[in-house]
Amino acid sequence: MDVKLPKATIANKVRMSKSPYGEGRILDDEVSMLNESIKTLRQADPVSAIRTLTRFNGVFSTAVHSYVQLAMSGYTVTGYSAMTGQYSEEATNAAKSIMASADTLHDYTLGYADKQSIDSFLETMLKEVVQTGAAASELVLNRFKLPERVIPIPVPTLEWVARKDGTKYPIQDLTTTTRGFNLRKVGQSTNNSNKDVVPLDFPTIFYCAMQQQANSVHARSPMEAALQTVFVFAEFVEDIYRILKKYGHNRMVVSLIQEKIQHAAPEAAKTDAAEMIKFLESTRSAVEGVISKLEPDEALVMYDTAEVNNLPTAGEKADYTALLESFSGMLATSLKTMPSILGMRMGGSQSISNTESLVYLKQVKSIQQPVATIMSRMLTLSMRLVTGNDAYIKFKFNSINLRPDAELSAHQSVMDTNILRKLSNGFLTDEEAAHLLGCGPRPEGAPKLSGTFFMDSGAETHPTDMDDNSGAQERNLSEGTARGSATSRGGGNN
């Protein structure tokens, strides 16, 4: 069967999408929020607010970072025949070669190798899914129509055009702000005659959204629902900080004894009221200057013309602890992240914590699906361009597990045994079993094992052969019988 490949016109230029940085020197012009209140972001569009919070808000940044790091659980690529759906060793090896070339092979005659590694590209795509709810990329081909590299496309720069047959294709609008934060309100049109629009109606453009709504073509970030709660939480913390700074600390009060200061004043000041006022003010300023420069470990020494006291905070103060914990729980829920990861101490039993961990891993796994879909489609096109085979590639992230590899070694041994058993019974080919075991290609001349029942040696333990008398209670009940324990078997009567 002939494989349908992209038309030759696709190779008229190397890259179809346009870089958001333009040409020339790239400046870091992203807006800084270090000295800004969280209220500034209330006027920004959701994606820009999420990107800014990811950089400058500690809680939000921790949530996004944890999502991406846990989602980077490793991956496998497997090729299958399009006609039979069976494992294809040639397609699998071609996909692995393409993945390896992205990390290691470069054209050294072109100067700096501007190619992201696969791991770096996956991190970028996963972070884009968390922040925008979708991911987009382009497979860049060289003039021979062979895969050269992959590049991410900022999702906020994409808009959609509908065809007459009901399908759609993306266009790239570079007038949309991709760095800093955009103060354009949600739903506000950006249509203008000076738009820098790039049509992306090409087979090398790939896009996939997370939990796409049926009545909209626009992606929505899973973090968008957390914005309102983050704003309330951050404003509440800012208010507490201002209150504590103004009323929450004891203050030193220095009382100057006016009679003694006037007695120590110069003679000219004693006879002139204006001079006396100047003298009193200069004395007060001098004492204030000394106290303001005083370090915590320094002593205060002065004449008996002043009295030093501490002014404690007095009056009714609200207890913000309960309210802060309530907001923390709401924030963790809206960010779909466990409170322990965000550094929040919440009550609950161990069983509840285990349930939270399992639910959280499901949430993290959900952001892998768009990236895995895009990688599968890109690798399928790349493999077909390289080999011409009618096959497809499935890119799959490994299972997410919080336990260390050393602790999982026993579980991995059981999984390997299951693979070998399927190989022994003929349900897997030798090549597919080697791929699943991570052993690489089998050496030439190796004996064929598929369907030889090499695991059926008779020495393995079957459930019917197990003697359920290993426990202490079972041994006591079996003592003196024909089925006695290991030390008394054969010595008893029925």
Q: What does this entry show, briefly?
A:
By secondary structure, the protein is an alpha+beta fold.
Which features does this protein show?
alpha+beta; 494 residues; disordered C terminus; 14 helices; 3 domains; 3-stranded antiparallel β-sheet; 39% helix
How many structural domains? Answer: 3
Instruction: Tally the beta strands.
Output: 10
Low-confidence stretches: 183-194, 490-494
Radius of gyration: 35 Å
- Percent of residues in helices comes to 25-40%
Helices, by number, come to 14
Query: Order of strands across the widest beta sheet?
Result: 3-2-7
The outline comes out as elongated
Descriptive overview:
This protein is of the alpha+beta class and 494 residues long. It has 3 domains: 250 residues, no CATH class; 62 residues, no CATH class; 75 residues, no CATH class. The chain is 39% helix and 12% strand. It contains 14 helices and 10 strands. It has a 3-stranded antiparallel beta sheet. Strands 4-5-6 form a 3-stranded antiparallel beta sheet, with no helix packed on it. Strands 1-10 form a two-stranded antiparallel ribbon. A hairpin with a 5-residue loop joins strand 4 and strand 5. The longest helix has 21 residues.
